[in-house]
Amino acid sequence: MKPIKVGLLGIGTVGAGTFNVLQRNQEDIRRRAGRGIEITMVAARNLERAAQLTGGQCRVVDDPFLVVDSPEVDIVVELIGGYELPRELVLRAIANNKHVVTANKALLALHGNEIFAAAQEKGVMVAFEAAVAGGVPIIKALREGLTANRIESVAGIINGTTNFILSEMRDKGLDFATVLKQAQELGYAEADPTFDIEGVDAAHKLTIMSAIAFGIPVQFDKAHVEGISQLQADDIRYAEELGYRIKLLGITRRADTGIELRVHPTLIPAKRLIANVEGAMNAVLVEADAVGSTLYYGKGAGSEPTASSVIADLVDVTRLATVDPYCRVPHLAFQPNQMSDVAILPMSEITTSYYLRVYVNDQLGVMADLTRILADAGISIDAVLQKGTRGGARTDIIMITHQTREKNVDAAIERIEALVSVVGKVIRIRLETLS
Amino acid sequence: MKPIKVGLLGIGTVGAGTFNVLQRNQEDIRRRAGRGIEITMVAARNLERAAQLTGGQCRVVDDPFLVVDSPEVDIVVELIGGYELPRELVLRAIANNKHVVTANKALLALHGNEIFAAAQEKGVMVAFEAAVAGGVPIIKALREGLTANRIESVAGIINGTTNFILSEMRDKGLDFATVLKQAQELGYAEADPTFDIEGVDAAHKLTIMSAIAFGIPVQFDKAHVEGISQLQADDIRYAEELGYRIKLLGITRRADTGIELRVHPTLIPAKRLIANVEGAMNAVLVEADAVGSTLYYGKGAGSEPTASSVIADLVDVTRLATVDPYCRVPHLAFQPNQMSDVAILPMSEITTSYYLRVYVNDQLGVMADLTRILADAGISIDAVLQKGTRGGARTDIIMITHQTREKNVDAAIERIEALVSVVGKVIRIRLETLS
């Protein structure tokens, strides 16, 4: 059988990795796929660099529309990043009856519903293993490996930059700004790190996993997105003393009244496997009714790890390119006419545990005030830690709560901050036992 | 579309789990698969129990051949266990143009080549996610998720019974026999635990993963199989002091001259994620050239975790039942005409590091003798630990070596045991850094 023909849109880090791995392992890949996979065309802004990278083995153009319109391309691999141009290119590729592979989580989190509907109508595939957790085959696990299950929750460390920063803050007792600067110097964080450190990238990935886990449309606009830039070294240390690690988790969970969809710093018991995922690594923990807990771990970014997922998708598409679309795995795991309209819950309606740090004037009766306010709000306390004064008569009181509704905590915090003995804002970090 | 019809051979632990999960989650499964999956027929030794379990919803027979011959069955799920009867039933199901799903690692490790060849000829599928690591979708990850990669090694904790025993031995400082007895009482070990504790079960699973990882036939007869029944509490403690945990690992690795295929107790650095997989859990660590390290973790046994994988296979088969066989994933990951004949290495040719414990009369010069013997054999030492005497003038000397060939260690051990100052046999446990 003739090789299937692939057009690359973009040949930056992931594109170059895809080209190199496809070339280096072409023999093994052909032995698996039963058919060659050949990059015939590349669109790049820097034509010279692209020509050098590809060694003259494929046509290099600067107009990506030439690739999506080319009869010499069966599968378009979109690796440009961003939203609008990729959206236009992907939709045009689909309109041209081409299959699409993309690593672009932002694109899918925002325009996935439109893109999958178009692909469905045309009977082509849009594959996106590389969009979540880099080289870890978590999309395949959720979409195919766990089809027997009612999935209860997905919780993931799905942004390597922030996990690297948190690991360094904990290991070295440094503050966020210092570690971010180091991470930028080491290439672990971008010059403009906003999307990573503010949780946006993690929320894109979580949105995609949520859709697949629960059979709902992608709904990035409903996600709660909170990063690590406000996290203080003190809280990492206090958490440690209480037996927890702080990770930036993306969490999506089936609750009684809807779906939780939230990214925020989270305390996790230090003994959990996922609490020990360090540096730039990713891990996703899935809870499901039949299988229980499963965890998937690996490199969440980088040239060849991400290329590994791009190429796995290329092999899948190569195999199934000619079959009846009904025989393929649906884009979002559930058949498109079988999606659920269960709502994403507002943050006030989620249920979790909390780490609360209150900075107080060390006065008689303040603990009684705090515990009374929590009791009034129906919040029970699991642990309390009172730390020595930081100069003067002030002290940190840390309370770990049992599970409660977020709105109860909002109300309690408002009352706590109104106490005269309380200084400044209450620090609130959510806590998941993941048991 | 009408439901696809499934016949169960056996309705013990996994069979009952499969029936229950299929029933409980039938709506979610149908929404994913696009078609119902219905158990129409069950073969069981205990007809009464089977009728009770299935609540009269399907035909129950005592002759499994009635199931594999029935026109009312599209997919046969083999859950009988053992070798000969399942082999006969599976081959007959294939001959009858039925697809097969099996959880039977022993069957595939021994008769896989014959079974897959028969299935290939008939154009039917044989799916076996449940045969390795229970509910963890490791077969899918290796076979589909990592198709871009040249896989370098697979190392797994793939037997829950032995991992439970090792966890208990370490936690409580107990010896093997005591913990085995407790495990039997708790139902974590069978009345005849031989297959588990002697590494046979792990070797069955490893044999299957090795075939998929490297594109070679299943070759259980070439596997090195070593269990934990000889493991002493002292060595678990010494390993701990040196920063290691002992796990029963199944390891298969691509070496320069062939493939390593071995199950044995193994020291692993305690800080590795896989070293912290405790109790009856399973985990598989895969090293591959593009993606680097990935790890897959979850329940390796039990009714519903294993059923989760059986049903995932049923969904896959349901989707692809009618497509051209060439469009499906090959049984052993590589196209059947593209298998490699690279040899499995004899144990003397493998390369790893070693923990050696020598029990000596505490005489002047014994350390010099030991280090000279290792140096003569070309083995360099990474660490030495000398422990206080255990009554009298005797002492344990523990040496950790750098990587070397097993035959060098065999030769050195022979010379060490011949020293007059050495008492009894040298304890040798292999060590993997898994870095």
UniProtKB/TrEMBL annotation, chains A, B:
GO molecular function, a single term: homoserine dehydrogenase activity
Keyword NADP: yes
Record keywords, A-Z: Amino-acid biosynthesis, Methionine biosynthesis, NADP, Oxidoreductase, Threonine biosynthesis
Record flagged with keyword Amino-acid biosynthesis: yes
One Pfam family linked to the record: ACT
Enzyme Commission no: 1.1.1.3
Domain called ACT: residue spans: 355-430
Pathway: Amino-acid biosynthesis; L-methionine biosynthesis via de novo pathway; L-homoserine from L-aspartate: step 3/3; Amino-acid biosynthesis; L-threonine biosynthesis; L-threonine from L-aspartate: step 3/5
Family annotation (CDD domains): ACT_HSDH-Hom
Family membership: Belongs to the homoserine dehydrogenase family.
PANTHER family referenced in this protein's UniProt entry, alphabetically: HOMOSERINE DEHYDROGENASE
Protein name: Homoserine dehydrogenase
Classification lineage: Bacteria, Pseudomonadati, Pseudomonadota, Betaproteobacteria, Burkholderiales
